[in-house]
Amino acid sequence: MENISRLIPPVRQPWAIEVYPYLYDHHFAGKAIFPAAEALITLARVVEKNFPGAAVNSLTDANFPRFLSIPSDAKTLTVSVDLEEIRKGRIRATLLQSVKSPTGRISRIVEHARVEFAGIAGKQKPAHPFGDLEKLEGECIKIPAAAIYSVLVPFGRAYQNITGELSVSRAGALGNISGGDAPSDDDLLGSPFPFDAAMHMACAWAQRFTDVVPFPIGFAKRIIYSKTKKGVGYLGRIVPASFTPKTLVFDAWIFDPEGAVCEVIVGIKMVDVSQGRVKPPAWIKATTS
Questions:
Q1: Topology alike, domains 11-118 and 141-284
Q2: What is the domain partition of the chain in residue ranges?
Q3: What is the pLDDT of residue 49?
Q4: Quick one: CATH architecture of 141-284?
Q5: How does pLDDT run across 77-111, given as a tens digit for each residue?
Q6: Average pLDDT in the chain
Q7: pLDDT at residue 2, as a whole number
């Protein structure tokens, strides 16, 4: 008789996210927003609890359809996570929250993040596609980190992890990034801060060349070859893959101090969530096509 492995049916797991003060440094339009990088860590942690030993270093088909707001003075965020083993060794995790209507009489479930976790084959790190890892093609400008975080990506200190100057050309963006020093969880997926800083690099590039201020809404694939750590410096590089009037797509690489690949994020989708209400400053815009 054929041996058919049994998949675990979908389950919903209640979960409480502990709110640390540093999370309030991640904000938009006057509201603290739970970062996508932290949402992925939360989902990985729930997967680890329910599927002991499951590999989580390959993440695919990630979506961040709605912001998860953090109320002022919150100690925890009450959420739930749907888990489904869609095939052996591949687990889909979805971060949900119950939201009440203004009258309090009706509740609905809102999805904030979704991703599929699996393992990667082999231990060998990939070669990068760049002729010179630390050289950006094309005419570059250099943007000081202070300008990025005061104007372009105005987050608080915990999320200011592009360091020094960011080089930006039509070919992409290149710069040093930090593993951060806030008390985040870097055990399962590595520090959230280099991943987050790569999104900032893409946002700065978009403001220069597309005249929008975009936020990430998902990615096609993220492979973690070596977990980044807090307190360590890295090199980040992003490349524009494609863009339309509504959606920008980037690929990103994070390298360790020796130049080895720590992470590759492919197909990062970014959109203008403000729908044109937030505009880049005049000084960042490219003056030539």
A1: yes
A2: 11-118, 141-284
A3: 93
A4: Roll (3.10)
A5: 999 999 999 888 899 999 999 987 676 678 899 99
A6: 92
A7: 35
User: Which amino acid, one-letter code, is at 237?
Assistant: R
For residue 68, give the nearest of 108, 12, 111, 25 by alpha carbon.
111
Of the candidates 255, 22, 284, 21, the one whose C-alpha atom is nearest the C-alpha of residue 151 is 284
Instruction: Write down the pLDDT at residue 170.
Output: 96
Q: What is the pLDDT of residue 254?
A: 98
Single-letter code of the amino acid located at 63: N
For residue 22, list its beta bridge partners: none
* 11-118: CATH architecture: Roll (3.10)
Q: Which of 11, 8, 5, 13 is nearest to 85 (CA)?
A: 8
